[in-house]
Structures are given as C-alpha cells and as structure tokens.
Amino acid sequence: MATPRTVAFYTLGCKLNYSETSSIARLFEGAGYTEVEFEQGADVYVINTCSVTDFADRKCRKVVRQALRHSPQAFVVVVGCYAQLKPEEIAEIPGVDLVLGAAEKFRILDFIDTLSKAPGKGMVHAGEVREARNFVDAFSFGDRTRSFLKVQDGCNYKCSFCTIPQARGASRSDKVENVVANAWKIAEMGVKEIVLTGVNIGDFGNGTEVIEGTAPKKEAMFIDLIKELDKVEGISRFRISSIEPNLCTDEIIDFVAGSQRFAPHLHMPLQSGNNQQLRLMRRRYTRELYVERVARIKQQMPHACIGVDVIVGFPGETNEDFLETYHFLNDLDISYLHVFTYSERANTPAAEMDGVVPVNVRRERNEMLGILSEKKRRHFYEQHLGQNRPVLFEVHKDKNLMAGFTDNYIKIEAPLQVELLNQVLNIDLQKINREGIVEIGLRVLV
Q1: How far is CA 376 from CA 208, 274, 372, in A?
Q2: 310, 332, 403, 7: CA torsion to nearest 10
Q3: Residue 263 phi/psi, 5° resolution?
Q4: Do 442 and 428 contact (CB within 8 A), yes or no?
Q5: Environment class of residue 210 by beta-carbon count within 10 Å: exposed (0-12), middle (13-18) or buried (19+)?
Q6: pTM, whole model, 2 decimals?
Q7: What pLDDT is attached to residue 4?
C-alpha cells in the first residue's frame, strides 16, 4: 500500500503497554508518519491490547468500531498481550486488518507497507511466544511530567491464574547502561518523574534465582540498576511501579529510604491474605513474609505509601478465606488497594480448579475491599495533613485546576498556576475535600 500520512494509537492496560505504545509511535514518526489524536481520524490505527481483565475482547471490538467511525477507510492494527494470546479471534473482528504478536509488534513497519484494505479476516503475524526472546527498550513521552520507562519484560513465574508468560514470554531485562542512557534522554525532554515498569521488575538480571539462592549472580540486578539511576541528576523523582514481596529485599528498601530521588512509594502484590490460597495461586511467599516486608518499609520510611494488589473470588476461596484476607489487610499499615475480581483464563491451571466462586459473590467481595481501600487511603492522607511535602504539579482535567502527587503518592489539587506545572515544590497539605483529594496551602515554600 502507499505510505499513509497519519497514525493514531489507543492503549489498553498497564504502564508497560503505555511505554511500548510510545516506542511504536516513535517508529512511525521516524518513518515519516504524523501522529494525530484518536478522534481526529487517521490513516492507520494501532490498538495495543491487554489480557488482564475478562473484557479484553469487548474492549478491543469497541475501540475498533470507534476507530472506523472516525476514519472508515483506516487500516486497523492490533498488537499486545491479547493479540498474542488470541490472534485468530481478533482477526475475525470486523475492520481489523493486521494482528501482530509479541515477537512481531516492534517490526510493525515491515508489515504496514504490505497491507491492503480488503473485506474478510485480518492478516495474522503472531508466532510462538518463545520467539519473543529479545528485550526491546521503550519509554513513554507525552505530558512532559511523567514517563514510564521499561526495564524488564516477560516472566518465568508460573502463577496459576496468569497468562502473562503466554503473552509476553520468558523474563528478560535491559542492560543497566541502556536504562541509564534512556533516563538521561527522558531528562533532556524536560520530564521530572520516571516510573520504572516491567512485568516483574524485581527479577531484573537474574534476580529471583540469586535472591532465592538457586544460582550465582551473573549480571546486574535490580538493586544495581536503581543505584545507577539515582545518579541521573536531570530526574527529580523515580518510582518503582510494582515489585514482588519476595524480591523486595532489605537492601532495596534501605536504599530507597536513603535515596534523594527514589520516591517513598512501593507497590507490592499480595493477591490473598490466606496461605492456602497463595499456594493454590503458586505465589512465592506467605502472608508472614508480606507482614515482614510491610514492617521493614514502615520502619525505614514511616511516611511511605504502600499499595497492594489483591484478587477476590479465586477458585476455592471460601467466605472464611475471604474474611481472613479482609482482616489481614485491615490490620496492615498499608495505603491503598488495587482489587481484581478473578476471571477464568484459558490454558491456566486455575481455570480447571474446583470450588468456583459465583460471580455475584466475587463482585460483593470486590466491593467490600474497594470500600476498605478508600478507608485506608483516607487514613493515610489524614496522617500527613499539616505536613509539608514535595509535589510534582501536572495538568488537571478541569482547566481551572492543577493536580499532582506528593513524593509518597498523596493526590492533591489546587487552583491553576500555569507557571507551576511540571515543577516540584514543597507544599503544605491542608485538608481533604469531598472527592478525597488533598487541598494544599496557597503558600508555596521553595
């Protein structure tokens, strides 16, 4: 086909997907394409999909329809985790022209030039996931405030509910020097905060094997990476997106506590507060280890924000199991929850397990933990009222306001002062408004 002029993107899912979409966008830019807003109408639409929720198919279909409504003759390309897991299913969606798997998505330009708009099933290029052996670096760039920097991809863990290894392949990492070089590039763009992303970033290098004592250290691990990143002076703040509790070592916690650039904010997946459920999930820790990790973080950083992932309705989860998790979380000194309702995934051990929890019960448990999360968040915010903390200011959906987060992930909002956008300033935290967001003092302490 003749080279089209414009391209638009739509990203579903995690921070890692957003970083990869940005890198794919730069490939198009380098080939002479102009990126436009999704609603503006483009010659090519690239949809980067996720497989974490059970609505992947529905979401993908909806976005394809929206794209073709804006530009009926556009070429529609679907990439990402869902594209690797169910390429033939996606190819049957009306309007989809090309489906690319994990090993092919970064070679998208090789396929675009051979596309032709024709009725019928879309073209599929999705090889075996084991072909996705190479690490391809990526980082997002958009609002000049925050960038998601990919440092690791894939996963060697075999959690019984998860399809990520099937969608992204084996664990693999970038090199420290390349991550640092990308961080400097991001700093030169004027970005103030970098969020480190990956599927299992604590496994950077051969981290799991070394930490668990099954193999000697072969290369730089995550602790080595963050020590080098801490020297990148152009970045005001680094965040660790998520790290497994078994990989969140004392050394990492102590380093973050003493760092000038790494935010006192750690997000650790729990999934269940019941040890039997953790075993069925094939997680690599117990609730007792999780308690130890939270205690260590709070000992070193009493002001630290701790986020938690939890799954409700996993097969075999009795009401007693759920209540054990609920009370476990209620007693923990944590700051907020990300609650996921379990949904069956094809080709996972959990999908074949007995003890299926009714969907309505799953939803009820999700709602209970959602309420607990808001209580935890508000309590965490209240602990810091009257304090002065650094805030990175950013745009707000309301044009009369500006938003932002403190270093320890307290969300704030204030009347817009354009000159403060993308600046990190020390601010008095005054009160919590009706929306549960902290309002700040008008006095700015530089």
Answers
A1: 31, 20, 6
A2: -20
A3: -70, 145
A4: no
A5: middle
A6: 0.90
A7: 57
